[in-house]
Aldehyde dehydrogenase (NADP(+))
Amino acid sequence: MITGKNYIGRSLKAGGDKTHKTINPKLNLENPTAFYEATPDEVEEAVNLAWEAFKTYRNMPGSKRAAFLNAIADEILALGDELTTMFTTESGLPEGRAIGERGRTVNQLRSFADLIAEETWRDLTFDPAEPNREPLPKQDLRRTSVPLGPVVVFAASNFPLAFSTAGGDTASALAAGCPVIVKAHAMHSGTSELVASAVIKAAEKTGMPNGVFSNLTGRGRTVGQALVKHPKVKAVGFTGSISGGRTLFNLAAQREEPIPVFAEMGSINPVVITSNALEKRAEEIAQQYAGSITLGAGQFCTNPGLILTVESDLTNSFIETLAEKTTDLDAQCMLHPNIKKGYEEHGTLVASQSGTETVKKIEKVTGANDAASQICKVSGDEFLKNPKLHTEVFGPFSLVVSARDEAQLIEIINGLEGQLTGTIMAEKEDYPTLGPIVEALEYRVGRLVFNGVPTGVEVCPSMQHGGPYPASTDSRFTAVGTSAIKRWVRPVSYQSFPQELLPEALKN
Amino acid sequence: MITGKNYIGRSLKAGGDKTHKTINPKLNLENPTAFYEATPDEVEEAVNLAWEAFKTYRNMPGSKRAAFLNAIADEILALGDELTTMFTTESGLPEGRAIGERGRTVNQLRSFADLIAEETWRDLTFDPAEPNREPLPKQDLRRTSVPLGPVVVFAASNFPLAFSTAGGDTASALAAGCPVIVKAHAMHSGTSELVASAVIKAAEKTGMPNGVFSNLTGRGRTVGQALVKHPKVKAVGFTGSISGGRTLFNLAAQREEPIPVFAEMGSINPVVITSNALEKRAEEIAQQYAGSITLGAGQFCTNPGLILTVESDLTNSFIETLAEKTTDLDAQCMLHPNIKKGYEEHGTLVASQSGTETVKKIEKVTGANDAASQICKVSGDEFLKNPKLHTEVFGPFSLVVSARDEAQLIEIINGLEGQLTGTIMAEKEDYPTLGPIVEALEYRVGRLVFNGVPTGVEVCPSMQHGGPYPASTDSRFTAVGTSAIKRWVRPVSYQSFPQELLPEALKN
């Protein structure tokens, strides 16, 4: 069923000659299908189709767009085992994860469908006229939101379903009334083609215009950069590395008409553990964090990569326990040989810094792409001196810092780059003195977690998934939860408009 | 009372040797005071003070920040005639305008004070825990908004009070909890110093931290660019030219940590007049638009610079009437010799394009800086061919385009850059066929006006003042109305937090 071609709207095309194959990381072998990189003409055609589709799609009633989103969910489920098998084959992730992530993807689509069934998501406001106001009468003014235009979505390496082809960015942009052009991830192009086929089927069944969705593939940056530079593209969603996200942000800012780029990038997700918490439940916390650090082979943007404590006897014994428990768990296969290579390189970089010690690392792993979990430790003094210790090690790795005292711990937080999350593990007796730590984290993160782990990102209205740069390029918006729709719209006011000419949502 | 110095927090400083003077455009002479350009050290000090002030100011209860905003309004009023005289001396605008704009400034401050008295402006959301949910329990999640940090506000040439030192940008940023550093406009540095003295007095009376407000002066771009590049500055508000705004946007995007720039820039504000409207009330419309085109010597960002009609006998006679009425009104003094120079240059540029005809221009004006009102006309064919005809002529100027038919009129709208406003003048019998024009304008503008003029920007929740680039650099936000506060905050989530440690607004 997989063709290796690009969906240019509903047509499968492969006019070029550059191809790539995906890899089965468990076998460390290439999968059979050759995927054709989209040609410049195919990019142009996909964007032009999206622009034409935008003209009708933006005006469809919410109920029709909702039917489209629900149909995508149905068609994804209808792919059955073919999809979960392709997912595990291209990602090395276990089947349970494939099923779980599919469930999340389907739920996201349905929750956006529910959201747009009513027009209130547009943040409607109404200011009635005051014809007798002095010195000047007040005009009737009403405000709604309109979609920006075609959106380019870059699929994420670590979520082949939930943050990729029909993931949160695509679901929220389609919900807002924006056609979507997906740049498939080269590591899971087959999964992307399957999901794209489901989206195209759903579009046909629910009468959507051709071009409302395209799926382009390609290794390297050529296709993605051509999309971001195209004048008819009006916004970009991206989940990935700082270098990739920043490159797209720069390109978008240099356009004649700059466009917003919502790039969700690097984060080491600091966790503060108080001495009281260590005293009361070091073992339990070590267990909980060993699970969080190794979850999905540590390949989550909310993975706890930095644990901050105040030095004491408790700290050292906690670090030992954490290291034991983390390395006791079975090594897991990583997404791709390049991800494994990056994990080793960055882990070695951090571990080799002055004063940094590897407490424990799995010595030998079975699979070629298995990740050897690793816990390192360093003093607060060293950490403060050396920004290389802030490096994100994407995988089952965590660095534990022992600060001299609480003042130094806060200094460390203040010196961090922007982060997606910040966590506090504490006891009730700590509450009166935690204010400064909570406040320091508030400056640097988008979500604060109390007595929990940062992994596990709930899809709900109160979720903020995004933080100060470089956690994301626009900390004012979230990539997860229904508020994510706000990234793709802008407000428009109507002054003194007759009822007949107002958008439906703004009529009396 | 005017010193020519910079307010670095509450201290008046003038450590440099570069000075400039403002100009009385009516007399075409320099005013006496020499204003000292802020030195690099003074810029550094102002930003560092702002950062320190941020730490306490962001946590103050809304009622305290509201008291500060109301006190600023009181202190501005207490400046009395000294302020209105300085305003007219530096701007050439009439006293009535000074009083009106002061009223608007004071009202804006008070409306933001009212807004922040309650915490609902933070877009609070609450998702309760579901401890029994399967397969995983749901954590308690709550979301609020926190201020970004120190904001730099660039004063606007054409609104020495309402969009300047204590104007809408400053009022909304202070309301949000962000300290403000104003880059005073070189054309009205005296007015800025007076208003700054009022802000500083209000800050002292209401117990605000030193550095919550600074006012730096300087001609040219040195001071402003140093501010935008400073790592402790977290956002920028700007009202002015496309070239000035884009320069700041580029600088901000190139920072190691990019920051948002809300630049409200160029707009020619297209107005569509239907044949039915011309048939029924050409004279009335000409009168209304002559008033709008010449209001404030045409020096408004919402000035109607482009009038679109479908060619007919009615069109030609309407253009004659409009030109008569526009040039019949008294010429008015412009803000500055440079503004007058720009007006003449850009007017000549447009009027000299192929196929463009000056219908009427005031032949001789009295004052050196008086603006000669001018109406030009051109065919739709010529307009479509020549992007130079899109040039904003900042002053009492309008270009009337006669399109071949409605299809061409829509093609013209589709070819325009982003605009702040788009207006339709029409009759009831037009309603059934206006849909395509409304829709074409929706793509290009932030505010649609029906049977009115675009000048006059109401301060209310439904106002959208901002549009697709280059009308503004971020069409997702407004510069006018209470929603303007949203430019200066970002969301933060709290997961499973104990009541004692939640921000006040998020407690049960």
In short: Chain A touches chain B through 65 residues (CB under 8 Å). Chain A has two domains: 6-127+148-265+472-506, 270-450.
